[in-house]
Amino acid sequence: MTDRELFAKLKILIVDDSAEMRSVLAALCESMGVGAILSASSGEQGLKLFCAEAPDLIITDGSMRPMDGYELTRSVRSGECREDGTESCDRDVPVLMISGHVGPEMVRLARDNGVTDYIGKPITAAVLYERILAAVSKPIHIVETKAYRGPSPTRRLVPRISDTFSE
Amino acid sequence: MNDAQSPEVPARFLRLPSIAERKLGADFTAPVRLDPRVLDQMQETIRELTAKYSENLKAQVGSLFSFVEPTGAGEPDARNQLYSMAHEIRGLAGTFGYPTVGRFAHSLCAYLENYKPVVSTVLRFHVEAMYDALQQGGGDEILASETLASLDRLIALTHDGERSAG
Predict the structure, then answer these.
(1) Which of B19, B42, B46, B100 should we substitute to test contact with A (largest number of A Cβ atoms within 10 Å)?
(2) What is the pLDDT along chain A (167 residues), one digit of tens a residue?
(3) What is the predicted ipTM?
(4) Alpha-carbon dihedral sign for residues A134, A62, B109, B78
(5) Where are the domains of chain B?
(6) Best label site of A8, A66, A86, B155, fewest CB within 10 Å?
(7) Cβ separation B90–A121 shorter than 8 A
(8) Measured between CB atoms, which of B3, B30, B95 is closest to A24?
(9) Do B4 and A153 touch (CB under 8 A)?
């Protein structure tokens, strides 16, 4: 089984308020051979598409208005889609956040809201490929309490930053 | 500390099959390295998009100048536009071979995030640094680091330790 055969079976949702960034991410996913690529320009639109299309992976920007990537992730993890009757939505879906803010506060915020992995801007082909592959090929470890469900909020989340740029 | 971290709150730990296992069956084994053919194809895509992006970037940086004075004068729309464009440049310039332009855009975004009001001189120096780096075909990393250090000193002198926008 090659990576391409795996990617061909994937449905990826890209959420970013920058049309240019959406277009670049979609082009890169297409060149990886991803089977279905969905795009949304806001957190709200992203959540609607998530509920309607049940993607296998979400790639989201952090800063968007009014609903940002953190709130989008929290909404996905809450399982509210299922309450709307969409049983196929996976609240444990891997969420990759791409953000220009790679300081510890924002990374911690992402982790506490249930983000799976955090990629610092600017992205490179290698980092994007590596993180998508990791997100879909590793078992998903979930912690569930009364008030939280998602990747462990006590784990150490390290932003992946390309070697061309660091804060 | 949230509930999942609190020792008093009962927690369940679940290990769910990977997306790949669900798609391809339980005998799926994760690859040990990236497929160079896929990576080549992605890098080819970046090369194809670079020419168009370079033109867009020149236009974007050129138009940043028009927001400098209004932003320094406190016009919120200009400030939002300037931030939005710098944010876009920060996100993509490095991907397309302009890492120094991206670094200056990152510094400009950080300045706008952390200070209110902002000073036109600081904004203009950032935009000029981006413009110069573009004129030099992407700029020099060592020179960029020195320029960024100078911009940091300028910000510190101009704002005298304040950090008010939050």
Answers:
(1) B19
(2) 788 889 999 999 999 999 999 999 999 999 999 999 999 999 999 999 999 999 999 999 998 888 999 999 999 999 877 665 556 789 999 999 999 888 899 999 999 999 999 999 889 999 999 999 999 999 999 999 988 999 998 888 888 876 544 33
(3) 0.89
(4) positive
(5) 53-159
(6) A66
(7) yes
(8) B95
(9) yes
Is A70 within the bounds of a domain? Answer: yes
Number of H helices, E strands in chain B: 6, 1
Q: How many domains does chain A have?
A: 1
Is residue B30 packed enough to be buried (19+ CB in 10 Å), middle (13-18) or exposed (0-12)? middle
Would you give the end-to-end CA distance of chain A in angstroms? 38
CATH classification at residue A29: 3.40.50.2300
What is the count of residue pairs from A and B with beta carbons less than 8 Å apart? 164
Which residue has 């867009």 as its token pair?
A: B56
Residue A155, domain member (yes or no): no
Residue A43 lies in a domain: yes
B77-111: per-residue pLDDT in tens?
999 999 999 999 999 999 999 999 999 999 999 99
Chain B positions touching A165 (Cβ under 8 A) are 94, 99, 102-103, 106
Domain presence at residue A71: yes
Rounded to two decimals, the pTM is: 0.87
> In terms of residues, how long is chain A?
167
Closest in A57, A143, A165 to B102, CB measured: A165
Q: Domain B53-159 falls in which CATH fold? A: Four Helix Bundle (Hemerythrin (Met), subunit A) (1.20.120)
